[in-house]
Every structure is written in structure tokens, then in C-alpha cells.
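Now for a specimen:

…
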Amino acid sequence: MWIPFSRGCLVNRILDFYRLQETDGLYLYWLKELLVAVVIFTLFYGLSCLVRFILASVLPRLTAATNTDLDDRILERVSPPLTLFVVCTGAYYAVRYLQLPAKVQMIASGAIFVVNVIIFTNIAYRVIDEIMNWYATTLAEKGREGLDRQLIPLAEKILVIFLVGTALIITLKHFNYDVLSLVTALGIGSLAIGMAAKDTLAHVISGFTLMIDRPFRIGDRIQLSGGQMGDVADIGLRSTKIRTLDNTLLIIPNSDLCNTILLNQAFPDIRAKGRVSLGVSYGSDVELVKQLLVEIALEIQDVLRDPAPEAFFVSFGDSALNMALFFWVDDYGKLFATSDKINSLILQRFRDRGIVIPFPTRTVHMEKGE
């Protein structure tokens, strides 16, 4: 049977054959690319399983042998995001291997890169947060609650801002943004703000100095060079608040407080030394008066026996022999009440013993004129 065949038909068949070969080759190429990407992701997924096993089974045995629980707490908090970070890293390299269109690949790999930066920043934040909490607990156990309440949250906020800024700069640099101009603009802006708020910054820096140097703590009773006395209520960044003895709030800028002389009655401990000064009439038995003063002080329950109260003959006055009684109390808050009890008991016992506490008198002799 005769089949009509033309040269044009043969050419078309040959072209169709080559097109089929090109399609099959392209299909095989993409299949190879996809297979390699899957292998890369599978390897990283296996690595994440290995990391999870090490974090869950191996490292806890090592951290259990240490004296602190800080490493255990850090390990517990970073384990979940760390395994996720390894998986996302595998996804990033798998997408980067695929020969996708430039815009599609930039969007896909960029999105995974941003997720990786967020996860890594979260890991760093968890480590810092655990270290700060552990340090705050250590300070509280040492009796330095004021420092952990004031300085630790501030330091943690500064570190968080630093982490976020670093993550933002890394992300912008990945997308080929000009990071140098951004950093320069931030530096110039910070300089302008610093010049405009130099007084406030001076108070803030002084606040840091007070928190680190710690000449006083919250709750300490201090006396300023101007004579004001009160208990420290709060140590802020800009100012320190002092509750005076008449229950008013005294607010002092930190820079002024750093440059003044003050007396801390609660340092090195809260014990306080009291003094009662009085005079007895000339002719009194000084040794008896000193013995009686010590006995009176020992009758008061709040007066410490160690160190024991002491009485001294201080000086000769115009109309009296000046005596002084020194005693200690275990808390400076009891000083006024204890002094009141001692003074009241001195009046009673001196009256019973016939010891006179004189008051200034003046005798005027009038002479008759001739």
C-alpha cells in the first residue's frame, strides 16, 4: 500500500523528536535538582535529630555534675529553638541550591533567612534571660535585693535592644541594603539627643554609678550634708527618692547625690549607737552617777549587752558636771524610742537618789549706793 510522504512531514517529525528530548532533559534536570535539595534537607533534619538527642540525653548528664543549675536551665530553654534552627538552616540551603527564578529564589530564601535570624535571636535572648535571672537570684540570696530589682531589668532591656538591633542589621545586610548609612544616621541622631539631654544623661549615668557603687541601698537610713535624714525609698535612673522621718518624700537628682557627702546609718550594719548627754550638780559622786547610768541603760530591753553601755565624765560645765551615756541598739529604727525610755528612767532614778540635774542660773548681787 502506498502512503504519501513529503519532505515537510519528515522535518516536522524530526523537530518533534528533538523537542521531546529537550523536555525530557529539562525534566530530568529539575528532578535531579529537587532530589539534591531533598537530600540536603534530609541531612539537616537528621542532624537536628542528633542535636535533639544530645541535648536531651547527653548534655543533661554533664550539667548535672556541676554545682550550679544555670547550665541546666539554659539547656532546657534553648533545646527546642536550637533543633528548629538546624531544620530551618537545612531548608535555607536546600532552597538556595534550587535553580529557581531570581525573584522567586530571593523571596523564598530571604523569608527562611529572616526566620533563622529570629530563631537565633530568640536563642540568644533565652540564654541572656536565664543568666540575668540566675544573677538576680544570687544577689537576692546575698541580701542585695535593691540591686537585682533596679539594675538587672535595665541591663536586660539594653541587651535586648542590642540583640534586636544586631538582628535588624544582619537582615538588612543580607538583602543588600546600605547598613553603613543607617548606622551613621543612628550615630548622628544619638549625638544630637545626647547634646540636647546632657543633664538628663548626667543623672542617668549617676544613677548607674549609685547602683553599681552602692553607697546605700533601698531601705537604708541616710543623712545628707544639709541635715536631711530619711529612708531610701527608691533608686531610679534620674533621681533617688528618700522618705523623711516626718513622712514626706524628698526627691534628689542622682548627679547631685553623687557629688555630696552623706552618712549611711545602715552601713556596715543596722546597729546604731545612741548618746544621752546630761549634767549633774557640782558635789555629786561622779563614779556613782556613771554606775547608775549604766544600770539604767541595762534595764532597757532594746539596749544591747554586747557592746555594753558605757558612761563617761565629759567635762566641767558652767553650772554642772557634764556626763554622757553611750549605748547600742540592734536597729537604728529603735534609737529614738530607746533614748526616750532611758531619759525617762534617768529622771525617775536620779530623783529617787537625790541626784540633782541643775539648770543654768545666774545670781545677781545688788549693792546699795552710798
Remarks:
- The chain has three domains: 7-176, 208-264, 272-353.
- Confidence is low (pLDDT under 50) at residues 1-7.
- The longest strand covers residues 272-280.
